[in-house]
């Protein structure tokens, strides 16, 4: 099998085992697993070696010292050899179009080695490890399947399958490598986790977290805008995540509703960010023209070198949409949307903004400032007054709750605080027509619809959102 990752091998012209500067096993770190392996020298001869597995290489203690093979992007295949008298278990590692075979003592030992190797290398035989249940997503470059692990309590995963026929250009292979590298680097509760990578003759398969709640776009289409409190909590989590990415010098470059997956329908502010195909290290100014129409920072569209703050702009767009269920930049085609996106003039004149505080609008304007020099970074954005106001209210509620509890436990109420209240004027939400809105959705091949949101209330808690699907416009990520 020809691997699409073969171009990433840094030692393709060298022998299988490479000499290292490490003199003793004590210097090897971090060690994931240690055990005896039997390297096959011929069909009938195997040589025993004490081996050490790290997060990037396999080390072997030899008479000439410690030697190693870099396992990054290597194909690893488990196997069994049956004869009349016995069964042999082992795995093989692909290098220079040939395999090196290793045997272990038992099937249990093989399972342990494969468990660790699968976190580092490229595996084969995804159908042997997972029961593919159904298709849950379809896009231009990949198909996403719901799958159950056959050996791990039937845990559910999402398997993203990419045809190798589409991975012929260096840019597409590099994008896949970037996505894999980024997901392996990051460890954050709000980032989708990459568990394993498989490759077959026809596809590359990424085994990812399965998130049941659907994406944020689906949530807004079905239930309408979020409250300011929920939107603030959501945005704070997004900005904290961007601050974490900034610490790793990683810029996502494609933050949008479709790439924010909700953990469940009940927890509307618990999410995982996905699709790191356009992500890259931003230790210097970038010039690539990429993103999704309607979410792209203006400096990208104006061909100005940019950095981490492009993700801040996208979060500002997401916040605009969470509070209004409207897209700030709309048009009849992606070209129209990009033109308005580049101009970067946000409007808050629609009736749906009458219910939104001035502080929330100012926060959106700060995050979407067309001048990146005036746009806050993630850490500074978290200190904006609107976010702080909800934290302050929460502290005040806790303080009031504590005071009330102490008063109720007292035998006298003479010293209890007197709280004066006045009726809160509530604006009439009857028949607020947000007109036609365009939420341009990608879903990797799923088309998107213009959407009519019509909110109603009649002194009850019932609110309905009516969605009238009209013409379809696809909001695809682009990379030039």
Automatic annotation (TrEMBL):
Superkingdom of the source species: Eukaryota
Residue ranges of domain Protein kinase in the record: 130-387
GO molecular function terms attached to this record: ATP binding; protein serine/threonine kinase activity
PROSITE patterns reported in the protein's UniProt record: PROTEIN_KINASE_ATP, PROTEIN_KINASE_DOM, PROTEIN_KINASE_ST
Keywords, alphabetical: ATP-binding, Kinase, Nucleotide-binding, Serine/threonine-protein kinase, Transferase
Binding residues annotated for ATP, in chain numbering: 160
Gene3D superfamilies: Phosphorylase Kinase, domain 1 (3.30.200.20), Transferase(Phosphotransferase) domain 1 (1.10.510.10)
Composition skew (Low complexity), residue ranges: 401-416
Ranges where the record places region Disordered: 401-420
InterPro entries: Kinase-like_dom_sf, Prot_kinase_dom, Protein_kinase_ATP_BS, Ser/Thr_kinase_AS
Pfam families: Pkinase (PF00069)
UniProt similarity note: Belongs to the protein kinase superfamily.
Protein name listed in UniProt: Protein kinase domain-containing protein
Organism listed in the record: Blepharisma stoltei
């Amino acid at each position: 099998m020809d691997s699409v990752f073969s171009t990433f091998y840094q030692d393709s012209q060298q022998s299988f085992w490479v000499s290292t500067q490490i003199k003793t096993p004590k210097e090897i770190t971090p060690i994931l697993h240690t055990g005896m392996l039997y390297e096959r020298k011929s069909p009938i001869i195997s040589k025993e070696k004490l081996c050490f597995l790290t997060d990037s290489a396999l080390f072997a203690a030899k008479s000439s010292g410690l030697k190693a093979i870099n396992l990054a992007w290597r194909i690893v295949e488990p196997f069994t050899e049956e004869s009349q008298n016995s069964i042999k278990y082992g795995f093989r590692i692909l290098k220079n179009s040939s395999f090196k075979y290793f045997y272990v003592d038992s099937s249990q030992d093989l399972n342990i080695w494969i468990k660790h190797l699968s976190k580092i290398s490229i595996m084969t035989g995804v159908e042997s490890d997972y029961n593919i249940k159904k298709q849950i997503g379809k896009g231009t470059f990949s198909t996403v399947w719901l799958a159950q692990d056959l050996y791990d309590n039937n845990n559910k995963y999402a398997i993203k399958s990419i045809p190798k026929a589409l991975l012929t250009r260096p840019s597409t292979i590099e994008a896949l490598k970037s996505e894999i590298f980024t997901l392996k680097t990051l460890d954050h509760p709000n980032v989708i986790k990459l568990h394993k990578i498989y490759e077959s003759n026809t596809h590359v398969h990424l085994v990812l977290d399965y998130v049941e709640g659907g994406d944020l776009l689906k949530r807004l289409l079905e239930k309408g805008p979020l409250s300011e409190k929920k939107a603030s909590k959501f945005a704070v989590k997004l900005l904290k995540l961007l601050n974490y990415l900034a610490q790793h010098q990683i810029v996502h470059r494609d933050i949008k509703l479709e790439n924010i997956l909700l953990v469940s329908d009940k927890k509307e502010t618990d999410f995982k960010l996905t699709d790191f195909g356009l992500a890259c290290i931003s230790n210097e100014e970038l010039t690539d023209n990429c993103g999704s129409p309607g979410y792209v920072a203006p400096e990208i569209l104006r061909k100005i070198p940019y950095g981490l703050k492009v993700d801040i702009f996208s979060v500002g767009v997401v916040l605009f949409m969470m509070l209004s269920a409207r897209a700030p930049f709309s048009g009849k085609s992606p070209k129209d949307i990009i033109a308005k996106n580049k101009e970067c003039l946000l409007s808050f004149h629609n009736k749906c903004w009458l219910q939104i505080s001035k502080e929330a609008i100012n926060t959106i304007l700060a995050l979407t400032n067309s001048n990146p020099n005036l746009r806050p970074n993630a850490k500074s954005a978290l200190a904006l007054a609107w976010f702080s106001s909800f934290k302050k209210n929460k502290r005040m509620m806790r303080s009031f709750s504590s005071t009330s509890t102490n008063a109720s436990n007292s035998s006298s109420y003479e010293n209890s605080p007197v709280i004066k209240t006045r009726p809160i004027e509530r604006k009439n939400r009857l028949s607020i027509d947000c007109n036609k809105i365009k939420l341009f959705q990608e879903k990797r091949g799923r088309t998107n619809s213009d959407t009519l949101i019509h909110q109603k209330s009649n002194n009850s808690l019932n609110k309905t959102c009516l969605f009238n699907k009209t013409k379809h416009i696809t909001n695809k990520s682009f990379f030039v």
